[in-house]
Amino acid sequence: MTTQTSDVILERMMSLHPKIIDLTLDRVWRLLHALGDPQDSLPPVIHVAGTNGKGSTQAMLRAGIEGVGLRAHAYTSPHLVRFHERIRLAGELISEAALTDVLDECEAANGGESITYFEITTCAALLAFARTPAEFTLMEVGLGGRLDATNVVDPALCVITPISMDHQSYLGETLAEIAFEKAGILKPGVPCVVGRQADEALEVIERQAAKVGAPLLIHGQHWHVTTEHGRLVFQDEDGLLDLPLPKLLGHHQVDNAGMVLMALRHLGLGEGAYEPALLNAEWPARMQRLRRGPLVEAAPGAELWLDGGHNPAAGETLARTLAELPPKPLWLICGMLNTKDPVGYLHPMAHLAQGLRAVSIDGVSATLTAAETAVAARRAGLEAEQAHSVLDAVQEVARLEPGARILICGSLYLAGTVLAENG
């Protein structure tokens, strides 16, 4: 039993490979074999890839599974505040003791060989999952799919959420190239639920599915989802479902719910899973209303919201969601990474916002400076100034426009910092 904390072990693991991202599966297979191949002893796996909506979709899937009294492991990334958020064992966040044990075991089995942080921690999650009873395992792809460290599982079902432009330096410069990487999770004979896709992406998914022999359940072909009179209406070949709207905000969550309902129906979990999936899901930093804490106290009368979306498709989704809220002056507080497209992300929201305060993300080496984000925001059509911190920005907006709606946005790393500082 280790006496070290998980934070110490995780920091040491960061030094095992010079690159943060290096897409290949060789190192993962090597370590998994050394660990006794835990990936072969998992409860049935649902493997989720895509650009946007993976986390929300997984959260609804877990809520539906738990709604009928079953247990699900869940693996997601990145974390917002603590690494433990990435690994849920039978529905509960992994304990510090369990995490340090599997990290220690993976580190010892790896023997100092080169391996990325995400690869070795994914192996740790698989080891923990294999040793804990549950009925399902939910695995979210970290980056891409074909060469992602999670693509060592033999799934019972795959899900591909909407694909858009993101991580071009790793996945390709066109939507077709990115879709090819995402479709790399498809397996022979394993059904895949496919969310709403651009034609260019769908063509790639269909071509890859035909090549490997993976049956597809495609939005707009095999199932449909919409809203009518404040209700969600889902239809497939088995009939019509009339359900409450998802608890998670935004029209895009209706599409996510459609994928979840199709998956739950395919898994045969029964009608008892449907409403819990929509009404019980929790997913922080996705249009999350902040209702208490120092930031809320710094802007009495204001509405504070937090969202971790960070690519142009996420910006379009946010704009649509914001437009559906009751009218109120909107201000943005934004911090982003230098690997993203800030102009493309902010442009859809420019016509909705009174202005923007740009911040850098503390402790993140890849952050854009506040000045760089402010320049990008002006290029996107926003009035923008720099702020020293999120707290300073909130206080300034509260002085300028008491009772405003304030959205803190642009990065999951910024969202994690905000959640930690806001308690």
TrEMBL record:
Residues 48-263 form the Mur ligase central domain. It is an enzyme of class 6 (ligase). Residues 295-411 form the Mur ligase C-terminal domain. Its EC number is 6.3.2.12, 6.3.2.17. Keywords: ATP-binding, Folate biosynthesis, Ligase, Magnesium, Metal-binding, Nucleotide-binding. Pathway: Cofactor biosynthesis; tetrahydrofolate biosynthesis; 7,8-dihydrofolate from 2-amino-4-hydroxy-6-hydroxymethyl-7,8-dihydropteridine diphosphate and 4-aminobenzoate: step 2/2; Cofactor biosynthesis; tetrahydrofolylpolyglutamate biosynthesis. InterPro entries: Folylpolyglutamate_synth (IPR001645), Folylpolyglutamate_synth_CS (IPR018109), Mur-like_cat_sf (IPR036565), Mur_ligase_C (IPR004101), Mur_ligase_C_dom_sf (IPR036615), Mur_ligase_cen (IPR013221). GO terms for molecular function: ligase activity. It catalyses: (6S)-5,6,7,8-tetrahydrofolyl-(gamma-L-Glu)(n) + L-glutamate + ATP = (6S)-5,6,7,8-tetrahydrofolyl-(gamma-L-Glu)(n+1) + ADP + phosphate + H(+); 10-formyltetrahydrofolyl-(gamma-L-Glu)(n) + L-glutamate + ATP = 10-formyltetrahydrofolyl-(gamma-L-Glu)(n+1) + ADP + phosphate + H(+); 7,8-dihydropteroate + L-glutamate + ATP = 7,8-dihydrofolate + ADP + phosphate + H(+); (6R)-5,10-methylenetetrahydrofolyl-(gamma-L-Glu)(n) + L-glutamate + ATP = (6R)-5,10-methylenetetrahydrofolyl-(gamma-L-Glu)(n+1) + ADP + phosphate + H(+). Transmembrane segments: none annotated. Belongs to the folylpolyglutamate synthase family. Functions in two distinct reactions of the de novo folate biosynthetic pathway. Catalyzes the addition of a glutamate residue to dihydropteroate (7,8-dihydropteroate or H2Pte) to form dihydrofolate (7,8-dihydrofolate monoglutamate or H2Pte-Glu). Also catalyzes successive additions of L-glutamate to tetrahydrofolate or 10-formyltetrahydrofolate or 5,10-methylenetetrahydrofolate, leading to folylpolyglutamate derivatives. This is Dihydrofolate synthase/folylpolyglutamate synthase. The lineage of its organism: Bacteria, Pseudomonadati, Pseudomonadota, Alphaproteobacteria, Rhodobacterales.
